[in-house]
Automatic annotation (TrEMBL):
Keyword Transmembrane attached: yes
TM spans (from-to): 466-485
Organism: Haloarcula rubripromontorii
SUPFAM superfamilies: Transglutaminase, two C-terminal domains
MF-aspect GO terms: protein-glutamine gamma-glutamyltransferase activity
Protein name: CARDB domain-containing protein
The keyword Transmembrane appears for this protein: yes
UniProt cross-references to InterPro entries, sorted A to Z: Ig-like_fold, Transglutaminase_C_sf
Keywords on record: Membrane, Transmembrane, Transmembrane helix
C-alpha cells in the first residue's frame, strides 16, 4: 500500500502542471492517467487508463490521431503501446483510452503518455504529454512445497503452503501442482481469498511412474486490488524409491474342541501400504470364513480371526492373503495344521507302593488334548474293598496345560482279594465338567516301603520288617563257623605230620 500511495501522489502532482500546448483555438490536456496495478510485478500487464479533456473554453474540436506510452529519457525511443484513429473530442468533452504495457525487470520506471492530435479549426498539430512514474516490484505471496517419502507406483501426498506477505489481501487464489514423470491424482485447490499476513495449505496427491528423481511444480494464480491477476511458480525435486514387496503370515490355533479358529497375523514389511487385503484359508477337512482388511500401513501388523468348521479332528490348511501393493495385485501364502482335540486328562507313569497296610499310588495327570484342562482333581473311589486313606485321599492337580503333565500322589487301604484300585479324575474344559475313572492294577506295585504303618499294628509291622535281617545274620554266622571248622581240621593234619 505504501508503494501504491507513492505512485498516486506522484501522479497528482504531475497532473497539476499545465500540459496544453495547443493553438489559440484549442484548449486541451491529459487530465488523468490511472495506473492498475499501482505496484505491478515483473512480466505483469499494467493498464494506463488515460483521460484526455477538451476544455469548455476551446473554440473547436480536438482530433486524436494517436496516443502512445513511451519510456522517458535515455537513448533511443522505447514505445510500449500506441493506439490510433480515436476520433475527435468536442469542447467540454473527454476521451478515456486504456494503454497497456509490461516490464521484464523490477525497478522504478519513468514513463510518458503522449497524445498526438490536430486542431480541427486551424489544422495545427497538437501534442500533449503526461509523465508517469511506476515502481515494478518482484513481490508475490511466499510458497513452500513439501511431500512425503514416495515409492514408484504408489500414491503419495504433499502440500503447498501459500503465505500472503503483500500489503493487501489477495482473492481468487488457485493452486495447481504438476509433475515430471508423475501422475497427479489430486492437483488443484481453490480458495476465495487470503488475508494480508494470512496463509493457506493446498494438499495434493501424486503417483511416481518410476523410481528416481522427479520435479514437482506448483503454480499459484491470484488477484490483487484492481482485478489484476498474477501468477507465480515454485519447483521442488523429490526422490522416489523402487517398490519393495515383503509380506509375511503367521498363524496360531485358537479356540477349543470343535470351536476352533486360526488367528492370522499379516505383517507388512513392504515400503508402501497394503490395500484391499483379503485373508482366507482352504482345507479338505475344514471350511473357514474370509476377512477383508482395507489398509495395512508399511512396517505394521494386523491380526484377524478365521473361524473354522471342521469335518475331521485334523485339517491341513493353506492360508492366503491377496492384496494391492501400488498398482499391482500380489499374494502370499503359508501352511499350517489345525486340530480339534479338546483338553483330555490321562493318567500316565503310574506306580503302586505298599506302605504297611495302605497303598501309595503315584503318577502324572497328563493332558493329551490341544487345550488347557482346569481344576483337575484325582481321587480314590470309595468301594466295598477300597477306602481312601490319609494323607492324600484325593489330590488337587490344578491346571494342566495342553501337551503337559502334573504329578500326583494318593493313598488307599484295601481289604480282601483286591487286584485294582479305582481312581476318579474330574476337570474342566471350556467351562464343561468332565469325569473319568481309571482302574489302577496292583500288579504295578514297585516295592515295599520301609516305613511303619501309621494307621495301627506297628508291632507286627516291625517284626515283619526285621525278618530279612535275622535271616541274613544267620547265614553269615553259618559261613563263619564253617571257615573255623575247616581251619581247625587243617591244623590237626599238620600236627600228625
Amino acid at each position: 500500500m505504501r508503494h501504491s500511495m507513492a505512485v498516486l501522489a506522484c501522479l497528482v502532482v504531475v497532473g497539476s502542471l499545465p500540459l496544453s500546448v495547443a493553438g489559440a483555438s484549442v484548449n486541451a490536456s491529459i487530465s488523468d492517467v490511472e495506473v492498475s496495478p499501482s505496484s505491478p510485478a515483473p512480466g505483469e500487464t499494467v493498464t494506463f487508463d488515460t483521460t484526455v479533456r477538451n476544455l469548455q473554453s476551446s473554440d473547436s474540436p480536438l482530433e486524436i490521431n494517436d496516443i502512445a506510452i513511451r519510456k522517458s529519457g535515455g537513448r533511443g525511443i522505447t514505445e510500449y503501446e500506441r493506439v490510433s484513429d480515436l476520433g475527435s473530442i468536442s469542447p467540454g468533452s473527454t476521451l478515456e483510452v486504456p494503454l497497456t504495457a509490461s516490464f521484464d525487470s523490477a525497478g522504478t520506471k519513468d514513463l510518458r503518455v503522449i497524445v498526438y492530435g490536430r486542431d480541427r479549426g486551424t489544422g495545427d498539430n497538437v501534442e500533449l504529454r503526461y509523465p508517469v512514474k511506476l515502481n515494478v516490484e518482484e513481490r508475490h505471496p511466499q510458497m513452500d512445497i513439501t511431500a512425503t517419502d514416495s515409492v514408484a507406483g504408489v500414491e503419495s501426498t504433499g502440500e503447498v503452503t501459500v503465505a500472503n506477505g503483500l500489503d493487501s489481501q489477495i482473492t481468487n487464489v488457485e493452486v495447481v501442482v504438476e509433475g515430471d514423470g508423475v501422475e497427479m491424482t489430486k492437483s488443484r485447490t481453490v480458495r476465495s481469498s487470503i488475508a494480508q499476513n494470512g496463509s493457506i495449505t493446498a494438499p495434493f496427491r501424486f503417483r511416481p511412474e518410476s523410481a528416481g528423481e522427479h520435479s514437482l511444480t506448483a503454480t499459484v494464480s491470484y488477484t490483487v486490488a484492481g482485478d489484476t491477476t498474477r501468477t507465480t511458480t515454485r519447483s521442488k525435486v523429490i526422490e522416489s524409491d523402487p517398490l519393495r514387496n515383503s509380506v509375511e503370515l503367521d498363524t496360531t490355533a485358537v479356540g477349543s474342541g470343535t470351536d476352533r479358529a486360526l488367528r492370522v497375523a499379516v505383517s507388512n514389511g513392504a515400503n508402501a501400504p497394503l490395500s484391499d487385503v483379503m485373508v482366507s484359508a482352504t482345507s479338505e477337512n475344514a471350511s473357514f470364513q474370509r476377512v477383508l482388511l482395507e489398509n495395512i500401513s508399511a512396517s505394521t501388523t494386523r491380526q484377524v480371526r478365521l473361524n473354522a468348521t471342521m469335518d475331521e479332528p485334523r485339517a491341513d490348511v493353506t492360508v492366503t492373503a491377496n492384496y494391492e501393493l501400488g498398482t499391482e495385485t500380489e499374494q502370499t501364502t503359508t501352511e499350517t495344521t489345525l486340530r480339534s482335540v479338546p483338553g483330555t486328562i490321562d493318567l500316565t507313569g503310574l506306580d503302586v507302593v505298599r506302605q504297611g497296610g495302605r497303598l501309595q499310588i503315584s503318577g502324572s495327570a497328563s493332558n493329551v488334548g490341544s487345550t488347557d484342562a482346569d481344576s483337575v482333581l484325582v481321587s480314590v473311589v470309595d468301594t466295598e474293598n477300597v477306602t481312601p486313606a490319609t494323607p492324600n485321599r484325593d489330590y488337587f492337580v490344578g491346571t494342566v496345560p495342553a501337551s503337559d503333565f502334573v504329578s500326583f500322589d494318593v493313598y488307599a487301604q484295601t481289604e480282601g482279594n483286591v487286584t485294582s484300585v479305582p481312581l476318579e479324575v474330574t476337570y474342566l474344559v471350556d467351562d464343561t465338567r468332565k469325569r473319568q475313572t481309571f482302574e489302577v492294577d496292583i500288579d504295578r506295585m514297585g516295592g515295599l516301603a520301609q516305613q511303619a504303618d501309621q494307621d495301627g499294628g506297628s508291632e507286627g509291622g516291625n517284626q515283619n520288617s526285621m525278618l530279612p535281617v535275622f535271616i541274613a545274620g544267620g547265614l553269615a554266622l553259618l559261613v563263619v563257623v564253617g571257615v573255623l571248622v575247616r581251619r581247625y581240621r587243617r591244623s590237626d593234619d599238620d600236627i600228625e605230620v
